[in-house]
Design a protein that fits this description.
alpha/beta, eight-stranded mixed sheet
């Protein structure tokens, strides 16, 4: 499990890590990454990585994943937990792993995001089409980056998070790469995670509207324009044109 920190929310980090330490059934190995700092709030027994500069969220998470691998961590799963996210129950990680084992085609498993009271479920937080029934699990093409279980095999095969992105959109980009590699995602509706903070979800809703506005097919996730304007990365240009990006098609 990778936890990224900048020492700017110590109270939230401590509360989140307390719920992490209560997780049952599965063995959890934790790496705490200080993004341009030495992390001050670290769970007992965790690996610690101190980065000399802030690499951005995707870059910091990649460093954590590599640190676990280099430490000989044998796990089949990676869980990325934002520093101020908390587990509402001690069986969340075990249940996510069980869901993943039942769906070997899924590279990642997404829990159901609920409102602060753990009962309200705004439709914009449902990661699949036909969002009128938030209690129905199913195949998905989107990813909420800060509370997600990812199959290590798939993560390593596509090179992890796109570290040219500093923050935001990295879940869309990783989901896209996993789909291109033949994987899908799974929405586990019965497993709840409360939201981190309102700003995050407003941004997530904005990003989904942006994707719809671009007129892309529902199974695709576009690469943000500011990341790779000439789409010089592997498979970017052909993939974007195939998905009907008018701007790229016009550019030839």
């Amino acid at each position: 499990m990778a936890i990224l920190s900048m020492n700017d929310r110590s109270a939230e980090e401590g509360a989140a890590q307390a719920t992490l330490l209560t997780q049952e059934v599965v063995a959890v190995r934790v790496v705490a990454i200080g993004n341009g700092c030495r992390p001050e709030t670290v769970p007992p027994g965790a690996l610690t990585v101190c980065l000399s500069k802030n690499l951005g969220i995707p870059g910091g998470r990649n460093v954590g994943a590599r640190a676990l691998r280099d430490a000989g961590d044998p796990t089949d799963w990676l869980y990325f937990l934002d520093k101020d996210a908390a587990f509402p129950r001690p069986d969340v990680v075990a249940r996510l792993v069980a869901e993943a084992e039942q769906h070997p085609e899924a590279a990642w498993v997404q829990p159901r995001l609920t409102g602060p009271d753990d009962t309200t479920i705004p439709r914009r937080w449902i990661p699949r089409l036909r969002a009128s029934d938030p209690g129905r699990s199913g195949r998905i093409a989107s990813m909420t980056e800060g509370v997600v279980l990812i199959r290590r095999e798939a993560f390593d095969a596509v090179g992890g998070w796109e570290d040219r992105i500093f923050l935001y959109h990295e879940g869309s980009e990783l989901a896209w790469q996993l789909f291109e590699a033949g994987w899908s995602g799974w929405y586990a509706a019965s497993i709840h995670m409360p939201p981190r903070h309102g700003l995050y979800h407003r941004l997530a809703a904005r990003n989904r509207i942006w994707i719809d506005y671009r007129g892309l097919p529902p199974h695709s996730s576009p690469l943000p324009e500011h990341v790779d304007r000439d789409h010089s990365g592997p498979n970017r240009a052909g993939a974007i044109r195939a998905r009907g990006c008018a701007a790229c098609a016009k550019a030839g």
